Amino acid sequence: MTESKTDPASNTVDPKLLEILVCPVTRKSLTYDRDAGELISKSARLAYPIRDGVPIMLADEARELSDAEAR
Question: How far from 34 is each of 1, 2, 11, 48, 50, CA to CA, in Å?
């Protein structure tokens, strides 16, 4: 089975959940990139995916931010 990119609309996260979520690496706040369906930790330079509306808060599942994205 091949993995396809999930529809961004299904990656919507409850705003109340976003208020309490922090980066598991740095324990600092995250920003929500709705278009990419990711939670961004600039301090850790990681982007955590959101799959079917569930944030995957595992460093092993996160992608590293490029220099431009980390600014």
Answer: 26, 23, 8, 12, 10
Structure tokens at 25: 């690496």
Give me Rg for the CA atoms of the chain: 12
The CATH number that domain 8-66 falls under is: 2.20.25.10
69 alpha-carbon distance from chain centroid: 13
Instruction: Pick out the chain residues at pLDDT < 50.
Output: 1-4, 6
Q: What are phi and psi of 9, to 5 degrees?
A: -65, -30
For the entire predicted model, the pTM comes to 0.81
Instruction: Provide DSSP, 44-69.
Output: TTEEEEEETTEE---TTTPEEPPHHH
Give the phi and the psi of residue 11 in degrees, each rounded to 5.
-95, 15
